[in-house]
């Protein structure tokens, strides 16, 4: 098969392998740190965890991606990217070590969050730099395959890092700081692996760098405004983004509910609740994988709006049936279903945006998409903090989410009847493949 042949060729490229190693180690460390942060906030014995605390943790994990993301590229196009990987990972190792010390010292929560926020903020530069550096180590003919392999491998590495964090957390008492230090060690390994790449290999080309930083930042702001204006003229893409934002909001609210159920309702022991949370995340991840398999086939038959409506409708019907039991088995089934429908709708939304938006605006629209995606999740956590009781059992929250899913299903299905989907991009633009991350 051509794809298998291309993968073999890619893995024979020395610099590609080295860049991939930086990605794998960096994202494995991210997985460890993010699970360490979540479990410290939710499952530490000395903490009386509240939905508000979970909302704060989610804000720390997700908002840097949204607030810094559009501007990270400006600096990445001025700094040598190899040096970004080196110093960025060294800085994250130092900050993660400081976070571990803060955990041991039992400092006020706000100081812990400042330290954790610093680690996740640097992450945006490293991930964006990895994508920007890829064309420097792969020829143009195999760039699409490389773009598929690298992020997928990175996601698996992050999942593996999260699993390692769970194992460390379950195997030793008072191990929150130890888990964070494991992440710090992996950041150090990522920094070391970046030294195997030549300093100037990954760009940027200095002849193409804008001479003034202020002008570059100003052009980014103007570009985002232009992207919003373009999106207002492309109602098809705007409606798909609106529907996906509502579904992401629903997923976020239910995630907080499951966290509280695992912590207080389903187990009297910390280790039992933590194991149930790990199982719920794994089951939801299986739903994401199922969506990646099913969505190409369903979109080819139903169209992207039809598939989005089907996903939202299935969630509206099944979420209250399964969720109102507030017991592990039905909720775990719901976790799989919600993982499937959320990721399925996201892939369909990506397809709509990529085919409805002019090529010159796609990057800016996806930056705005990233902001909506993460802010919706954090906003859902904030709303859940107002509705959820301490044990996580909230009939109003479950029913509210079901109504939102039903409204999204009705809106997207109605739009789908009048929407003729043409998977080919506009004339003169290159074809884009739907992202499934």
Could you characterize the architecture of this molecule?
This protein is mainly α and 437 residues long. The protein has two domains: 1-209, Up-down Bundle (Growth Hormone, Chain: A); 233-425, MFS general substrate transporter like domains (Growth Hormone, Chain: A), CATH 1.20.1250. Helix content is 80%, strand content 0%. It contains 13 helices and no strands. It has helices at 2-12, 14-43, 51-76, 81-105, 109-133, 143-171, 176-194, 213-233, 235-265, 270-323, 328-356, 362-387, 395-417. The longest helix has 54 residues, at 270-323. The protein starts with a helix and ends in a 20-residue tail after the last helix.
- Give a count of the beta strands, DSSP E runs of length 2 or more: 0
How much helicity do the residues have?
Answer: over 70%
**H-E order:** HHHHHHHHHHHHH
CATH architecture of the largest domain: Up-down Bundle
Instruction: Tell me the β content.
Output: under 5%
CATH superfamily of the largest domain: MFS general substrate transporter like domains
Radius of gyration: 22 Å
CATH fold assignment of the largest domain: Growth Hormone, Chain: A
**How many separate helices?**
13
- CATH class bucket of the largest domain: Mainly Alpha
State the main characteristics:
mainly alpha, Growth Hormone, Chain: A, 80% helix, globular
Secondary structure layout:
Elements: H1 2-12, H2 14-43, H3 51-76, H4 81-105, H5 109-133, H6 143-171, H7 176-194, H8 213-233, H9 235-265, H10 270-323, H11 328-356, H12 362-387, H13 395-417
Helix pairs in contact: 2-3, 2-5, 2-6, 2-7, 3-5, 3-8, 3-12, 4-5, 4-7, 6-7, 8-12, 9-10, 9-11, 9-12, 9-13, 10-11, 10-13
